[in-house]
Amino acid sequence: MFHTQSDVVFVKGLKVEAVIGVYEWERVITQPLLIDIAMETDISRAAVSDDVSDALNYKEVCDDVSAWCQTIQAKLLEHLAGQIADKLLAKYSCHKITLSVAKPTAIEQADAVGVQITRYATSASNGATIQADTISSNDA
What we know:
Blueprint: E1 7-18, E2 31-41, H1 44-49, H2 58-72, H3 77-91, E3 96-103, E4 113-121, E5 128-129
Antiparallel strand pairs: 1-2, 2-3, 3-4, 4-5
Helix pairs in contact: 2-3
């Protein structure tokens, strides 16, 4: 599923309704988004303790990401993905995030269109280094 040597906490197919898009009509409606998140982190403490307080809480991650999508109201999926990744790195204990955001209703002929990005925590600050791996993008 994931090609990494690190532990990963993941969310697959998080469904969020949010304002997203560049056209006027898109700014007055919500559209469905599908979000996948892979957060590389050390889960060894939680694996031993069996205590949620030692874990990266994926319920909190889902709640935060849903709220951020609704608050940000981005025009571009690229902007939304970057904002979410930066916020996750700032709030949660992880060193790498791969995040995809898709619009399943944007293009009739496609199951979905979207972007995938990868961000790394920096040791000097809570910010993220800029490294993006875009798969496809269409915000129409």
